Amino acid sequence: MVWLAIIGLLTLCHSGIAHRTKFPDGFTFGVATAAHQIEGAWNISGKSENVWDRLTHSRPELIADGTNGDVATDSYHRYQEDVDALAYLGVDFYRLSLSWSRILPSGRNNYINPDGIRYYNALLDALAEKNIEPLVTLFHWDLPQSLQDLGGWANPKMIDFFRDYADFCFREFGDKIKSWITINEPYEICEDGYGDEKKAPAIDSHGVGNYLCSDTLLKAHAEVFHLYNETYREKQNGTIMISINSIWYEPSDPENTEQVTLAETANQFKFGWFAHPIFTEQGGYPAVMVENIARESMQEGLTKPRLQQFDDYWIQRIKGTSDFLGINHYTTFLVTGPGVDPTAKSPSWLKDTGAVTTMEVGEDSASEWLRVVPAGFGNLLRWCKSSYNDPPIYITENGFSDRGTLEDYGRIKYLNDYLTEILNVIYEDNVRVLGYALWTLVDNFEWRAGFSERFGVYYVDITQPDRPRTPKLSAEYYRALVATRELPQDERFFDQARL
Ligand code: NOJ
Questions:
Q1: Is 185's C-beta closer than 6 angstroms to any atom of ligand 1?
Q2: Domains and CATH numbers, the chain
Q3: For helices 75-89 and 473-484, what crossing angle results, to 10°?
Q4: 397 CA distance to ligand 1 centroid (A)?
Q5: Per-residue pLDDT tens over the stretch 231-267
Q6: d(CA 425, CA 70)
Q7: Which one of 63, 182, 198, 328 would you pick to mutate in the ligand 1 pocket, going by the greatest count of ligand atoms within 8 A of its CB?
Q8: pTM > 0.85: yes or no
Q9: Which of 190, 280, 294, 299 could, after both became Cys, cross-link 305 (CB 3.0–4.6 A)?
Q10: Closest of 154, 214, 244, 184 to residue 349, by C-alpha
Q11: Residue nearest to atom 5 of ligand 1 (CA)
């Protein structure tokens, strides 16, 4: 009897009867990918070298399994298979990115690569044929190497280069693309690429290059927003936003007021670094960042802080430059106390936060940094509503990594629990979440993890030249979700052993 009652209770919880399970009318579902992670064709049809080509070729030891994006999932040749997979899932939209070095091989607009244009037109046409809306990211980390040779995002000249590239893309593809993302995950670009070696170009100018990068990147984003707004929006009738990534920080002891304050500081350093300048009334970098970095810089004997607040012109110019708040979210870390994190370099962003953090929370995944903490997602979304004046939100990425199993119950449970949080904040807190993009369609080149961490709802056998794609159980789960707009209840999606 007791046993039956327990089973009943578990079924009730996982079937969602205890929660709302239906998404509101108008909520849209998609999946997301990025050019360098899937396209391959790295040096053919006119494409030039980008910073990830350079890193993976010159320092292959940095990639967990020694793989690279040379062929990846060969989507340059197999895009129709991707589009068919999208149609099978039934999604409303497909978030993809354009490869800058495929379109403008020199990085500048002096030469346009006709094969690059042909490729994206063919892909966009194939999507249109299946009634799938494209949501297109202009920059998802694959900077042309020629621009990196000039300093990349640490060089303010990038504002012009990015604007010119965007201008070309709006003009060329704007009749087919109604939803744009300027830049994907500015934190990862600046901190991991310029303040560390975790991502290309692996400059590792910790505490310096990362802040030069954010200055340029936010200005470049704003210029592209204004360009779209003033020159293209009326004719093309589209929208434009930025996708900001978040690791949400919680105090490890919610009763500890010092930890609570530090968790807020950490969130301002991570999410606020790029969101505060764009989404607050006040604009500019978060005050706590400016103060902490000024204090640290003085202690280092500098006469000017390593991060300086924008001047009034730029504060105004950057403010309000996103139609929606695009959020990429995967996980939560805990703040355990004040001090210098043992892993922090000096100087560095991490040291500047003044917080010690841990990932020791929730169940794990195949990625060291990714722990399963659905409640953190709800907390992040409520925090965004209150911190940024109730913005309309798109979840532009969310997903789970494993080693590539077809019966991917871990992924399904993750998706189900994170999507439940979205429903909770929509219905209980009136957070305006309008759409959701699952990361990702096919197992793809997961940057420095190579193919060792698999995020796809389609398995890809990278040992085969034709890169066959096989739907995992999560593809069926997502398909059922999109068809009904309701969290699927079917028992086959839930591994009873794990409930
Ligand atoms: C964020 C990035 O935008 C994407 O490129 C990456 O593969 C996923 N997160 C998973 O790490």
A1: yes
A2: 2-488 (3.20.20.80)
A3: 50
A4: 8
A5: 999 999 999 999 999 999 999 999 999 999 999 999 9
A6: 41
A7: 328
A8: yes
A9: 294
A10: 214
A11: 34
